[in-house]
Structure formats: structure tokens, C-alpha cells
Design a protein that fits this description.
alpha+beta, transmembrane helix, single chain, 5 strands, OB fold (Dihydrolipoamide Acetyltransferase, E2P), 2 domains
């Protein structure tokens, strides 16, 4: 029973960690090599794509999507999609997809004369499932050695930890005051019933034994 309990606890926290890792903003230092518009047919991976851009028709099985192609500072390629989030989840309230694509195209460079940028994004890159992180912002930096402090992540994670701690403390108090006394009463009731059954059995054995 203990292993089952720990399995559910670990599974819960793994889901919480995956949720925050996908949703919270991340920052990559990269060099933009190209930008393009690609027609995408949505299938089983549709949950990893945003809704149609604000003002466009909904319910489409395919649509044109902006992409930003980059080489990161560690030399590895990374491709980002560029979609509006609108008023949906996650709450980035991004409506400037076309403007961002224009800025990214203006910042293209080559390996001989690199122009480094910081790309703020959310989401995951998975080649097998054909999913891409969504670029939210692009800004130029002087070098790939720029220091980035994720203040938004720090604040959100700190507030979330405080909320979980407050819920945990109140749950412990509620359990001590209400649930534990009820469980003790139930255990005492079972113990009294067990003693009564044992006493009845002893009397019956004595009674039958006396009759012999």
C-alpha cells in the first residue's frame, strides 16, 4: 500500500512539473537563419498547437503557420513556431504574430557575421511528434554570453510553492482536528467489538465445556 501511495504522489508532482515546464517562459540565445510560412495539417499533435490567430476562422484542419529557424549558441538547430495565443492558455495574450515574424526576419544573419538574439518562448520541441515551442518575443543581444535571470518564473514558482504550503498546513490542521479523532473512534469501536466477540466466544466455550 505504501508503494501505491508513493506512486501517486510522484505521478502528481511529475504532472505538475511537466505543466510548469511547458507553460512557463524559457529563453534561448540563438542566431536566426531563416523565417518561413508553412501549411500545417493538424493531427494527433493538435493539442500542442495554438488556436487560429485572432480574427481568423476556427475549426480548421490546416492553416498557414509562421516558423523561425535558428542555430542556438551551442551550435544545435532549433525551430520555433510563431502563433498567437490570444485570450487562451497559456495566458501570454500574444496578438502580434505578424510583427514578431517581421522582427525575426530583420534579425537574420550568417555564421560569418552572427547577430545574436534572445528568444522567449514556451512549449517543447519534439521531432518525433512534430511539435515546436512557440516564440513569444525576440530581442537582440550583443553576445551569446548574456546573463538571463528568469524573474517571471521565480515569482510564479515562489507563489505556487507558498499556495501549496498553505494548503498543506491547513490540511494537516483539519486532519488533526477532524479526521484523526474520527479514525480513533472507529478503531476503538472495532477494538470494543472485537473484545466483545472474544468475550462471547469465551463464554460459549465455557458454557459448552461445562455441559460436557
Amino acid at each position: 500500500m505504501r508503494y501505491i501511495k508513493w506512486f501517486f504522489i510522484l505521478a502528481f508532482w511529475a504532472l505538475v512539473g511537466a505543466f510548469f515546464h511547458y507553460t512557463l517562459p524559457q529563453h534561448d540565445v540563438a542566431r536566426i537563419t531563416d523565417t518561413e510560412i508553412r501549411r500545417v495539417d493538424f493531427g494527433e499533435n493538435s493539442i500542442f498547437w495554438s488556436s487560429p490567430d485572432s480574427g481568423n476562422a476556427t475549426g480548421q484542419v490546416n492553416r498557414d503557420v509562421f516558423f523561425i529557424q535558428t542555430i542556438r549558441d551551442n551550435g544545435r538547430p532549433m525551430v520555433y513556431r510563431n502563433e498567437d495565443t490570444g485570450w487562451g492558455w497559456p495566458p501570454y495574450f500574444k496578438f502580434d504574430t505578424a510583427n514578431l515574424q517581421t522582427e525575426a526576419a530583420d534579425l537574420r544573419s550568417t555564421s560569418d557575421n552572427p547577430r545574436w538574439v534572445v528568444i522567449r518562448h514556451y512549449g517543447w520541441r519534439n521531432e518525433f511528434l512534430s511539435i515546436y515551442p512557440n516564440a513569444v518575443d525576440v530581442r537582440r543581444v550583443d553576445s551569446p554570453d548574456v546573463t538571463i535571470i528568469p524573474w517571471t518564473n521565480i515569482i510564479i514558482l515562489t507563489l505556487t510553492a507558498l499556495v501549496f504550503w498553505a494548503i498543506y498546513v491547513r490540511w494537516r490542521r483539519f486532519r488533526r482536528r477532524r479526521i484523526d479523532p474520527m479514525l480513533e473512534d472507529v478503531e476503538e469501536g472495532f477494538a470494543d467489538a472485537s473484545d466483545a466477540v472474544k468475550g462471547t466466544g469465551s463464554r460459549m466455550r465455557g458454557w459448552f465445556g461445562g455441559r460436557k
